[in-house]
Amino acid sequence: MNFINTFQSEWLKKKRSLASWLVIVGAFFTPSIILMSRIKNADQLSALYVSDDFWQKLWNQTWESMAVFLLPIGIILAAGLITQIEYKNNTWKQLHTTPQRFTTIFFAKFLVILIMLVEVFVLFNVGIYLSAVVPSMLFSNIPYPTAPIPYMDFLNANVNFFLDCLPILALQYLLSLQFKNFLVPIGVGFVIWFLGVGMLAWEYSYILPYNHGTIDFLMSSDQFANRKIPPINIQLLAAIYFVVITVASYVRHYWK
């Protein structure tokens, strides 16, 4: 019960930050661009909407920017925003004097960011669906997509991408708790992400957790043909990183 109360308190604090807007904007950014493009080119979409691979093409189109750019950057910003609430108001000491265990506070804040990530995934999938069906609702020459939605394939892909994100979340949480200056963990995160993108051509690029989502997307969309397949399952590696980094973060801040 104490954990639930602490989590509710941390969730209420989030409302006073830009975190909620970050979730909404991040989730609907790419689907909105695709929707506007389709509305603009409505007279050219009839053939696309009756194709057998309609949903797979849309999926690849929307997830490319999400996996490579928006998810890593969004997690970097979200972790910084949530932890910055205490630094900005200088309330860390006050928070630790309350009758709450360190473990409770640590994981309550962590859970807030984790649920924000879940919200992004849910809203993003809603955005993908809307970007597909809204044109057919607005224009009579565009039929509803005739191809069946591959629900299980998309569900499995969502789970994989979610697991890919967890090490980034854990590492950014660690960095954001470590530094009082909001720009430091964000700057470090951006640098690591940027270096990761530059390392994608390297056969061992999978060792950098910020690359997992990109590699996963390239493999699932058959764009990894001329590269060496990682010798370990990306999601398994991400789970290992997540556990190790989370434990290290907890120990580091418990004894701080």
Commentary on this structure:
The radius of gyration is 20 Å and the shape is globular. Helix 2 (19-40) runs antiparallel to helix 4 (54-89) and helix 4 (54-89) packs antiparallel against helix 9. The longest helix is centred in the middle third of the chain and has 37 residues, at 102-138. The protein has one domain (2-254). By secondary structure, it is mainly α. The protein is built from ten helices and no strands. It starts with a helix and ends with a helix.
Q: In angstroms, what separates the terminal alpha carbons?
A: 26 Å
Order of helices and strands: HHHHHHHHHH
Total of helices: 10
Strand content: under 5%
What coarse outline follows from CA principal-axis ratios?
globular
Oligomer: single chain
| Main sheet record | none
Radius of gyration: 20 Å
List low-pLDDT spans. Answer: none
Helix content: over 70%
Mean of the pLDDT scores? 87
Output the structural class: mainly alpha
The count of β-strands is: 0
Q: Tell me the number of structural domains.
A: 1
